Amino acid sequence: MLSLSELKSLLATPQKIVITTHHKPDGDAMGSSLGLYAYLIQKGHHVKVITPTDYPYFLHWLPNNSDVIIYTEQKEQSELHVAEASLIFCLDFNTLSRINELGEVIRGSEAYKIMIDHHLEPEDFDDYRCWNINACAAAQLVYEFIVHELEDGAFMSKDIATCLYTGIMTDSGSFRFPSATSEVYRIGADLIDAGAEHWRIHQLVYDNATENRLRFLGHCLTNKLEILREFNTAIITVTAEELKKYNIVTGDTEGIVNYALSVNGIRLAAFIIERTDRVKLSLRSTGDFPANEICKKYFNGGGHRNAAGGASDESLTDTVEKFKSILTEYKTQLLQ
Prior knowledge:
Layout (H helix, E strand, L loop, with lengths): L3 H8 L4 E6 L5 H16 L3 E6 L17 E2 L4 H10 L2 E5 L9 H7 L4 E6 L10 E4 L6 H12 L8 H14 L10 H12 L4 H9 L4 H14 E4 L4 E6 L1 H6 L10 H6 L6 E7 L4 E7 L5 H8 L3 E2 L3 E6 L3 H12 L3 H4 L2
Parallel strand pairs: 1-2, 1-4, 2-3, 4-5, 5-6, 8-9
Antiparallel strand pairs: 7-8, 9-10, 10-12, 11-12
Helix pairs in contact: 2-5, 2-6, 5-6, 6-7, 6-8
């Protein structure tokens, strides 16, 4: 393992660095990655951000987004950058399976690997770890890494602040989740002081939907929402045909599960969607109900207590029936 002093020594001279994040990156993944990118570029390093897949259109406005390399679209170039890197920063994930094919490429690299993450049960592939499951976002940890560990708060530019604020805002549910502690608010204030235009960031992320997405959302809420009052659970299911009908692209389904959770009395919400390769599940819960336990135990996934995801190789119908059958095991908790 690298010590902090050894990492500081490495970062004192220009390095070839790769930053990567998880499959289908969200606001925290891209905000933390591009925030760290902006910092390292300022320090004179040669940096590449490589994402395993594409990511939502409503994040393409982020500073330096045009420099991002998507692995599935530029494999040869991506693998060359990984091979040449002396440092690889792994942000917002803690197991290499979360970055698909790119994971084995990075596993085989001789570069030092730095994990910055807030998820449970990290895999031991890293050489330096900035890890805290109580952090509201990976972007919070990137802020703390720059400001406290590297003691480089003076380099907090507007671009860095904008990206990190985006990550914190999206992963904290616009600062409304329990993870948004008073310290997180103080970090947010510091980022605003550094130039993050909080009102504009919120507008660009949340008020930037396509017509297709809005019509699809209406369809989900009108026709696909199922309420199971006996379990205080709500389910939205979507078929592959429905995705095609509404011309759904990456990012269009993000956040829809939260509408199901917003129904009065609901403790657990599930968004179950039929993709080309498998059925994907996104779970949200309130209070201390363990959505992550269901995903880990039954759907090859995991995540946070109140926000988790998983997948199934069964059909959409069978997956939904399996999910419903599991609820009996948790009925007492769901009805508390």
